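Hi support team,

I submitted a single chain yesterday and got back a structure, but I'm not sure I'm reading the C-alpha cell output correctly. Could someone confirm the output below corresponds to the sequence I sent? I've pasted both exactly as they appear in my results page.

Thanks,
R.
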Amino acid sequence: MDSNLKNKSIQINSITKGEICDRCLGRHLSQDIPGECNSERGAYVRKNILKHSEDLKDNSKCTICFGIFDQLEDIVKNVIDTIEDKGVEFSTFLVGCRLSPEIMNKEDEIHHEIELEVESIKKEVNREVGKLLYQRLEKEVDFDSPQLVIMINLPQNKVNLQINPLFIEGRYRKLVRDIPQTKWPCRKCKGKGCERCDYTGKMYIESVEELVSPQVLKAAQGTGSKFHGAGREDIDVRMLGRGRPFVLEIKEPLKRDFNFIELEKKINKHGNGKVEVLNLQMSRKERKGAIKTSSTDTYKTYKARVKLEEDVSRVKLEVLESLSHIEQRTPIRVSHRRADKIRKREVKNINVKQIDNRTLELIIACEGGLYIKELISGDDGRTQPSVSSLLNIPARCIELDVLEVNI
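Hi R., thanks for writing in. Yes, this is the structure output for that exact sequence:
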C-alpha cells in the first residue's frame, strides 16, 4: 500500500476526529486514488486503510460538509420549486453555491495542514447539483453565458436566482424628425422634473428607445431595458431604408420565447408611424459591443437637402464630384462631448441634383463617422474640403436623411 496515501488518510481522519463522510474523504485524496467518484474513493480508504482506526465514526457524520451530500435531492427539489414559483423560462443554466464559514474553514484547515491541492467542496457541490438538475430539467449547462444562474446558500438550502439579460437584435426606421434615439434627461433637472421640461424629466417627450422597448419589456416580463444602437442619427434626421441596427437588452426576463413576427407588429403599431422595427431575432451579449463599435467600420448613404446663399450654375456643381478624402476636426456642435481631434474619412460617391438655383439634393455614400452637416457647411474651416469651400459659396444642410447603414 502507498505509504503517502496511508499517511494522508490518517492525518485527515485525525483532523476531523473521524467525523468525515466518504465523499469528503475521497475528495481530499482524489490525487492519490484513480477514479471519477469521490464516494467510491472514500469508501475504499475507509475499508482498506482506516478500518482499524479508533477515531473512525459512522459515515453519515461529517464535520466538513455537515451532511450536504446526503441532502442533494432536497436541494435540487428546492431549486426546481423556486424556478417554477418564479415562472422563469430558460434553456441554459449554471449552478453556484455559498457555503458557511464553518465548512470553508474546516476544509482550508485540512488543505493547509496536509498541503493538499484538490478540488474544493464548492466545485463538487456545484457539479453534483448541476448533474441532477440537468437530468430533471433537461436544460443545458453553460459556463460562459448561462441564461439562469442558480445560487444556493448551504447548509440552509436557500436558493437565489440570477436571471441574466436577454438580447434581441434588429433594425429600426425613424420615419419622422425631432425624436432622439434614446431617452434624453432634462439638462436642467437631470431627469427629476422641472418647469423647463414640463415636469417630464426629459428633453423630448419620446424617443426611438421609448417607442420600441415597452412592447418587448412587456412580452419578456423584464424589470428594465437598455437600447444599444450602431451609432445614432441626429434628432432632426430621419433613419430610412433598411434601418439602423440595434440590440435591445432586457434585464431579468421571465420569458424568452417570442413570436417575432407578432412582436414586430405590436411594436410598429405602438410606434404609430414614427418608428418601426424589422428583422427582430435573438442575439447574444457579444453583439451589444459589436453593434456599438461597428459604426465607423461601415459605410453609410445619406440624402441631404442643401441651401446655398448664392445662385449656382450646373457646370459649377461638377466640382463637388471631387469630394473624396476628407479631414474633419471634431465639429463645434459636438466638441463638448467628443475628443478634439482630426478624423480622416472617405466620400465614396456623391450624386448631385439641382432643385433650383440655390437648392441642391445630394446623395452621399461615405465612410462611417463622417459628419455630413459639417461636410456641407465646412464648420468654419474645420472640415476640408467641403461643399462650401469647393463652391466658394456658404452652404448649409436644411434636411438630412440616412438612407443606408451597411453593416
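A quick pointer for reading it: The longest strand covers residues 342-356. Let us know if anything else looks off.

Best,
Support desk
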